[in-house]
Amino acid sequence: MRRFWKGILAGLLFVFLVAGVASTGFAGQGKLYEMAIFADPTTINLYSSLGPSATVYNSFVSNSQYYTSLYGNAPPTWAFVPSAAADMPSPLKEEKIGDKTYCTSIVKMRKDIKWSDNTPLTADDVVFSYNAVLEMDPNKLGGNWPSIVDPTVLERVEKVDDYTVKFILKEMPGLSQWQYGVLLNYIVNKKYWEPIFENAKKAADPVKELFAHEPEKQPTAGPWKFGHWEKGAFWQNVPNPAYSGKGEVTTFYENGVVTIENPKTGFKWQSGKPEGKVQLKITDGPDATGTLYRIFQNQSAAVLSLTGGQVDFVLNSLGLQRGFQEQLKKAPNVALIENSVNGFRFMSFNLRKYPFNIKEFRQAVSVLIDREYICQKVLQGIAFPQYSVVPPGNAFWFNEKVPQWGKGLTRSQKVAEAVKLLKKAGFKWEVEPEVDLEKDKVLKRGKGLIMPDGKKMPEFEFMIMTAGYDPLRYTFGLNIAAWLKEVGIPIEAVPTEFNVVSSRVFDEQNFDAFMMGWSLSLYPDHMKWFFHSEQAEPGGFNPQGYNNPGFDKLADDFVKEADLEKAREKAFKLQEILADELPYIVLFDTPLIEAYKTDRVQYPYTKVLSGLQYVGGLTSTVKMLD
Amino acid sequence: MRRYLLNRLGQVVLTLIIYITLVYFLLQAMPGDITQMYLANPRIPQAAREELQKQLGLDQGVVMQYLNYLKNFFSGELGVSFSHYPRPVWDILMERLPRTFVLFLTAHVLSFYLGYLLGRIIAWRRGKVVDYAATVVGITFWTAFYPLLSLVLIWVFAYTLKLLPLNQFIEPRLWQGAPFPTNTVFGYMVYGGGAVAVGLFLVFYAFLRGLKRSRRNTARAWLSAFAIIAVALAVAWRTGLLVYIWDIASHMILPVCTLTLISFAGTMLLMRDSMLETVQEDYVMAARAKGLPDTIVRDRYAARTAMLPTVTSLVLSLASSMSGGLVTETMFSWPGLGQILFHSALANDYPLATGALAFTGVFLLIAHFVADILYAVLDPRITYAGQPAVEG
Predict the structure, then answer these.
(1) B90-179+240-335 CATH
(2) A211 CB near a chain B CB, below 8 Å?
(3) In this predicted complex, what is the ipTM?
(4) Which one of A27, A295, A388, A606 is separated from A534 by 20 to 30 angstroms, measured CA to CA?
């Protein structure tokens, strides 16, 4: 017996000793930039990566690291700037080609951009990158392809000379389809991809064949190229030795002007006349000798690895859980970053049903919801109240003058205001709610709400997320139900699984009220998608059935608008209509929390909409500290 | 016996069909499908969603999809994963299987061995301090909240003491330029480990079986065992595998220890109860009366019969180890079949989820079958021939 325990003890000691020796010596060495991610990317293949298997991790490790596009949005201001293009596209003009009239634009390209095999990136590559996708059919490629290479807009791209291309468009595109769509497509190497496409076209299922290709050795034009992928463990990128952006300086001025200067190749560009102070100057690298994405399955492991020095940054589109904040505040050489996000969580009614289609009813509901109370008192500041369908963080497009229903009112004032709005629409009560405004008390709860048609309002179902899926929406949902019941609105909050909510709302349109959330793109064309009546069919994005011909027309004009200032005016007007009619009652969102090692990395900036994860951890501009 | 085996085989096939049917329709009953992810991006037109439904065969009726699936399943084709399109399900399962197999097999065997050993001892010393101590310790771990225990062990041994690697199943820096993919190394670990285990079994069987046990034979057995292990290590070192095997092994220590701690008590208590019944048997009393040493009576007479229920439990747990364990895999960042099953179910990836469950189901059914046969081998009183075995 004694021998047995001695044996066990000796074995364990041996194992710990040797394992200890083996496990040390790998933490945070050299200039390798190490990040924690939480799932495997699904593919190396760009076409599959932006197709049905698209995940944010694909974008983190490959898409944004390997490829360039003609234009891009320069963080942190997200100004529209040229990348592989030498200047802005020529103004769109109508042109007769053959027997048809098209809309065309010329783009001149930079001559200093090279692929990692040291060959130049030319118009042939650009033309191939667009036309090959069109030929394959973006709808069949699926995922993001139809929105990037939009076949309803783009006819084809033609080569004018080695460094000039001509875009031929079926119709005059709006900003969302042009600057924020077609022009952002990634450029691939024609020499490498052309045979792959030709081969795929001969297969029984061309898309499947194309997606199955693993382009480990493809030339890239971004700062990195593929190194190694051990599924479930890590993804490694190595520097692109021919990266032409190395040393390139992007400067942001006080008046919003952006300049780009490459001292090595002599390339220069500026968006206007720089005035005022330089707000930010970013020099492209990469300074790191490689990027290593360690794949963890839980945040605790990633946080321990961060504080233990194994990783320099935790790269997660959802940020870090609030619970880790206190732990990380105390950790040496760890800095926390908090950024607002481009999204919102909201509640909505089925506007096809009575009385949800009464505007005053929705306004009363919005008034009754005390967003500030839940965010600050109940959720202790982990969420922030929101009122508009364009988040304030998206400063250029946000209209700060839209009404914010109920903001700043006390509980009793809210009840009184809601009663006023409901009465205005013709609602009555069996027992009308009563309040004492001076003592801020609800003296009598409302009972038996009578609708304007004289019938008693039946109980309706409000689908909220389960506590396990999203505790914040769950908490909000329960509080909303309690406040609405106080004035006699017969609501029943039902925690429901996300898939069920999604299916009942979008596919079946069989619901009374629901709560959901959206992540948005910078260009606020979501206002058209979410509220245009053409999206009210099953499977569309307007499941609530909002129908306002005036809004539809303005939304159509907005997405077709090619002038930035005019588009902004229309966006403001759309926000005003939505804030008055409330097809969505916007509730809140959460800030994104991230953490990095201050003794290992230095970022050119940390304040940016949606955090450093949105810019892929700044792999090419981060400075590695010795 | 043959008739019995054929009969059982028929039952296995029938059960498998029922199981796959249930799994298939249960997964299909989940609301929505994978194309719902397109709902997250309003810029993606409905046409793209319809194309994807067509591509994945979701535009067909559920019954037609099921019949196709069944036909493909029995011809060894598990289909293509929706969430890793167009990777075959089989590829994904085979990628994850070695990791799951090595980790959970090691943990189950270790846990079984520890439980068997301790159960045997505490039953023999019933009512003594060792009985109470082992039972209390075992039950404490058995009832511990597993994720918390994992976190505590990680925090103590990996984060604070830095004795063991912190999470993941390999050290990426070591593997950046590795000449082998991890699955090759896992493969060598399975085959090499299996060969070494068989070698060790044969050595101990040859030298220490029955009444051959003597000081000289014991020394010979241990020397041979060390020689086998030394040869295996030398081969691994010469082929350049040793450092990678060691890396994986060192990453296995924490999850294996946690799994062992949490589960050994089950086998231990089962073995204890079984032993307590067996030691009352006449043949054990007879062995004692013959004057045989206590350890011989305990290990050769009582323990062999008492281990029957634990063997069933072991075989079934080995089969279920193929499905991995979601909590273990998540807590230790060990990407195995459990994770695949969980994520595929969440993503409405029916082929992958069904494939993973069918795969586990096949192993469990085979394990049941093997357990039935093992019973007959281990206990001569059990027969499947249709007539009672000769007693005496």
Answers:
(1) 1.10.3720.10
(2) yes
(3) 0.85
(4) A388
